[in-house]
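testing teh design pipeline on a random one, pls ignore if ur not involved
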């Protein structure tokens, strides 16, 4: 009998040819598992992510000085400054005119009229005589208003309040009047004391009483 060729047996282990990369070919790399995406770089001119600002280190200069304790010793008060003294030589007859010129110069230099007090040791200033004719109440009310030059007799100068500038006209009167008026005028002057009169008499009084 003719021989029948046997059919080739297919075993389960032989499922076909294995995928073997050909010589010289690189097998494809498996794709990585997707992970967190990196932050995109900031564009030029566009600020990147905000970072926390570090705390500012304060230097001792930035720290306010501590206030002194109320229980501590009090600081000594500054001594009051003495007014500047200007001497205008004048005779008793011309002292009042010299004082008027001094007042005009003060007002022209910018002094307010209410800053000036004028005292006389002899005859009263014509303005004072005129205002006193209406009564002392009206006269001193103008002093208290403090908005104009005030003229007063040296004998009542103790009633006058302090003003930045005091002008004294040593226009006569007893020697005791000048001796009493100049120290009082010095105490009433805040910044400037102008004395119009005999220089020798004024220096002797100011040197002893001021």
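output:
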């Amino acid at each position: 009998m003719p021989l029948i060729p046997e059919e080739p047996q297919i075993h389960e282990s032989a499922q076909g040819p294995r995928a073997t990369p050909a010589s010289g070919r690189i097998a494809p790399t498996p794709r990585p598992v997707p992970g967190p995406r990196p932050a995109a770089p900031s564009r030029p001119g566009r600020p990147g992510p905000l970072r926390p600002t570090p705390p500012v280190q304060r230097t001792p200069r930035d720290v306010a000085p501590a206030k002194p304790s109320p229980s501590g010793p009090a600081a000594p008060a500054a001594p009051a400054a003495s007014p500047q003294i200007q001497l205008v030589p004048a005779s008793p007859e011309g002292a009042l005119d010299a004082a008027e010129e001094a007042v005009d110069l003060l007002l022209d230099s910018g002094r307010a009229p209410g800053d000036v007090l004028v005292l006389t040791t002899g005859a009263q200033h014509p303005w004072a005589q005129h205002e006193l004719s209406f009564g002392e109440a009206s006269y001193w009310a103008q002093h208290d208003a403090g908005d104009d030059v005030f003229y007063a007799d040296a004998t009542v100068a103790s009633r006058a309040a302090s003003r930045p500038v005091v002008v004294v006209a040593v226009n006569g009167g007893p020697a005791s009047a000048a001796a009493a008026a100049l120290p009082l005028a010095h105490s009433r002057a805040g910044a400037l004391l102008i004395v119009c009169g005999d220089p020798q008499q004024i220096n002797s009084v100011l040197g002893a009483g001021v």
